Amino acid sequence: MPRPLSHAFAAGLVGLALTLAGQVALAEAPARTDLLQIEEALVRAVPPVSTTTAAFMVLHNPGERDLAVVDASSPAAEVTELHNHVDVDGVMQMRQVPEIAVPAGGSTELAPGGLHLMLIDLVAPLEEGEEVEITLVLESDETLTFSAPVKRIEVMGGGDHGHGGHHHH
Question: How many CB atoms neighbour CB 59 within 10 A?
């Protein structure tokens, strides 16, 4: 259904302003640059006493060259790190990684038990339903800023092997 001209014109100006402001994504649409699309983003709801949480999403690369996320930040946390879970002698451990690769024409899932973003030293407790702003930095120094809702994550198998007891100092 076409929008009235005045609304479309205003939306165009807002879109232009957002593009100029650093590729800030509109909440209704998946976040995207020409390079990278963010889908199904969420931040894990944690108890108010917790100082860390994790962010998950699917990174989709519609382009013709491989991409890599090399850094991330969020005003919700003092530190944001790229992490993976690795099997060390049969024990799953979280490790910081230098980058998260997204192959050309492919997707990389950031999910519990695998790659994810750690939000460390939260500046305030996160309430379920809140939006958390996250900025990803690509190896090309391009940035992509988007909002991810805070949601509870039910972990299959009963035991939460997530981030409850994980502390960085």
Answer: 23
Per-residue model confidence (pLDDT) at position 106: 96
pTM of the entire structure?
0.72
Taking the C-alpha atoms of residue 101 and residue 39, their distance in angstroms, rounded to an integer, is 16
Sequence length of the chain is 169
Say how far apart CA 31 and CA 39 lie, in whole Å.
7
For residue 123, give the H/E element and its range: none
* CA dist., res. 117 & res. 129, Å (int): 19
Mean pLDDT per 10-residue interval, the chain, length 169 residues: 49 44 40 77 95 97 94 98 92 94 96 96 95 96 95 65 41
Query: In degrees rounded to 5, what are phi and psi of residue 19?
Result: -60, -45
> What b/e sequence results for 73-89 when a residue is b if at least 16 CB atoms lie within 10 Å of its CB, and e otherwise?
bbebbeebbbbebeeee
Distance (Å, rounded) from C-alpha 169 to C-alpha 164? 15
Q: Please state which CATH class domain 30-151 belongs to.
A: mainly beta
How many beta carbons lie within 10 A of that of residue 55, not counting itself? 23
Alpha-carbon distance of 33 to 155, in angstroms, equals 31
Residues 43 and 150 sit within 8 Å (Cβ to Cβ): yes
What pLDDT score does 153 carry? 85
